[in-house]
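In response to a reviewer's request, we include the raw inputs and outputs for one of the modeled complexes. The two entities were modeled together in a single run.
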Amino acid sequence: MNSSNPPTARQSVFRAVDIAKIYQMGEVQVHALRGVSVELYEGEFVVLLGASGSGKSTLLNILGGLDAPSSGTVHYLDRELTASDPSQLTRYRRDNVGFVFQFYNLIPSLTARENVELITEIATEPMDALDALDLVGLKDRSDHFPAQLSGGEQQRVAIARAIAKNPKVLLCDEPTGALDVQTGIVVLQAIGQINQQLGTTTAVITHNAEIAKMADRVILLSDGHIAGIERNSTKVAAQDLRW
Amino acid sequence: MRKLDRKLLRDLYQLRGQASAIVLVIAAGVATFVMSMCAYRSLTTTKDAFYRDYRFADLFSSTHRTPDALLPRLRDIEGVAAVEPRLVYDVLLDVPGMSEPATARLISIPDRGQSELNQVYIRRGRMIEPLHSGEVVVSEVFAKAHGFVPGDQVRAIINGKTQVMRIVGIALSPEYVIQVQPGSILPDDKRFGIFWIGRRDLEAAFDMTGAFNNVSVRLALGHETDHVIDQLDRLLKPYGSVGSYDRDEQLSHRYLSDELSQLRGMAVMAPAIFLGVAAFLLNIAVSRIISQQREQIAALKAFGYSDFEVGAHYLNLVFVITVGGSVVGSIFGFWMGANMMGMYEEFYKFPSLEFLVNWPAVAAAFLMTTVAAVVGTFVSVRSAVTLPPAEAMRPEAPPSYQTSWWERLLPKRWIAPEMRMVIRNVTRRPLRAGLSIVGISMAVAVMVLGNFSLDAMNYMMHFQFRLAQRQDLTVTFVEPATESVMYEVQNLDGVLESETMRSVATRIRFQNRSRRIGIMGLLPDPQLYRLLDADEQPVRVPEYGVMLNSKLAEILGATIGDQVIVEVLEGKRPTLTLEVSAIVEEYAGLNAYMNKTRLHEVLLESNVASGAFLKVDPNRIDAVFAELEERPGVGSVTIKNAMMQSFEQTVAENILVMRSFIVMFAAVIAVGVVYNTARISLSERQRDLATMRVIGFTNREVSTVLLGEIIIFTALAIPLGCLIGYGLAAITTAGLDTDNYRIPLVVSRNTLLLAASVVVVATILSATLVQRRVKRLDLISVLKTRD
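The model returned the following structure tokens for the whole complex.
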């Protein structure tokens, strides 16, 4: 990606304005976001970097339509997510968003291929489930159950599942958080590849600064605020990352 | 197949132990319901067809002697469609190979053509032929009890003369679907038989040419019974009518009606219990699976599965279980129903009693089960539906525990940490703990409910036939016997003690309520036929006034000190006003008693007797029978022990079948609840338990934590279950309370012990099954999984 391109020349996919989020965790009230404004652009690879509890997962969940902010507005293209009812949010996720979770969230009772098909069945323009698994290099393990796959393989199945619907945006929450370095790199390669080959707008949450090197832009979060936004002049390929 | 449905099947396979247990609980409820409803339909359909095809009468009346000339006037009563005059006599029968006499009820049938009402269905042989003297058709149960076939001969003592009757056919009648001798509460196939005989034969034997002593009436459609009864009584009164009655008072019909209402009761109670338990089990199983699958639900929703699709997914899981339970239950219900028909065939005689499937009932069973399941799982499924996906991504907040107030009261060292975990876990979810206890207690209750009927029956027999009635034989006379006849009977060789009684047909009235009953005149302090109060204490027959049994008192609404009106329906038909002087306990029939001497006075008669109670030397009983058979005045002889034995045999067999079903069903509930509760605890607390194992607790100590809960539940459930069982037994006895008989509310200690034992065994069994899983806990992987 050419860093000299001014960001304003590209279409904004997400536009969040002054969002805050307070939620109840057991008997404790948590201020997860305290007024965050941010924009994500078409086709870019963004890393949301922050320590545990900085509010990055909350931000991602709000962008993905999984959660609503306590205040502020969020737009996806022309659509105001904050004004959508739950069924419109479901429709939005179904048609536009691919998720990758830290703990994979695969359905243990379904095989790799069936996990992907679970999503392609309800998508409007899906790719073939096997092609999706092929993209993450797991075509030959398609009949294995999650319990028969390693953590990295499970996460790649989760990525295949996320992209199989041809989503406009791919949201990844600590995709390598539960993985060792080697496996983590394989998973990041898969994500990078999807971003480049399919042009899917991609946001990755991590607390690992090393991963930020592969992003177009890095948004730093701290204690529910945006602490800074950095643009990488040179992107490092996933296979060259070390931590 | 949709991938979501495939997930459902695999989840179900994972849950197979729990799911099967729930399927069985549902199946038990559905089976009982389907069985009752199919039996109900089969019995009703068969009964209605038999009544219709063989023209069962609507009204019945007995008289002394009514001339045939009155028939046109009876037929002219508005609302009467058909009238059938008959001669009906009870006589003694000398059956080869049986020392004691049997009672034969001889019923006349027209010499030409069929009877208009209460027609006879010929099972074997043929109908009697016109004017073939001495031919009879005999009822099937009696023929079967004695091995009679067409061509056999029996000797009857008719009006003092021995007469040989030739059996030409074996038959059934809608009037005697069940054959119970009047005055008896139980059928005795060996000693009471119905014989249909040509009218001319009976006319000759009893000198009744041109007259009848019994009339049956069929009502025209849409006419009121009461009006016709009044007209009948008015016309028949001069001829010694003791009052007409409708089918409700007709013995065979009443037994059938009682059976049908019992089936209906069972059809209400069984689903209420079993489906209630199933709903609870589904509730805990589904809420557990949903909380285990929080993250899967979150993923589904994140990828755009709608709330509705997620909810439907879990409801489908529930439906597979309920449909499974309904199918298994229906099939089992059909099988039980078919078995039940076999049992009914022993008691109720129809041309054919076919098992009919009651499809609307089957549909109702499916619907009820579905409703129960949806009610049971609604809250859990809704929690899956409304679970915000973002929240589901986060691990559940740790459950908050508290030390309970009574834990603080006791010194810490008194309670081991394991026990404290158990107690806190129980008290943290008091509702679930309470429902588990109620669930297990239902198993106890079902056992109590299923077995108390035998206790009640035993008590009833004991009370009625050992404590109250201590005679060996009851002899009734065709006509009130004079002192000399009584003297003869009382002094027969072998008779040890005897008491005479006088009984008259009456209508007893209090305020606007009345009943047709027999009043029995007894000696002041009877020793053989005693009257007892509810505390089993003998009650003296007072010199004045009338004693009512408790059921009659209840129906009339009369109590001690009230003045009741008694219209005597025999002889000079006096109307008396009598004070209720005592109320006595009896479990059969509606009866009233008074002082015999006083009864003679009001009837303006001498010292006569309708019958006698005899205590007989067991060694000389055959000689007594032989003598009694010789006496023309003797109308019937009832042998108490023989009747009890024959009853106990039949009932014991049938109760055994029902009992094994009940034990099985109770075990299903107990295992279902205990196994499910333990499995859920295990699944919820795998991490805790594995952690305990890792830090050095033994398998045994860890099992204490898991099974301690179950043991507490079972221990509390047993007394509660006994109470609930007692309550259900009370509801059942109230439902079975009929004019015919009452079931005393008696639950024996053995029944309670048996109920407790079955549940304890079921608990041990399920605990063992679950404990095996504790041993297999994979410590490392359990600690790794994020739950």
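As requested, we also summarize the result in words. The longest strand of chain B covers residues 495-510. Chain B touches chain A at residues 2-4, 6-7, 10-11, 14, 295-296, 298-307, 388-391, 393-394, 397-398, 400, 786 (CB under 8 Å).
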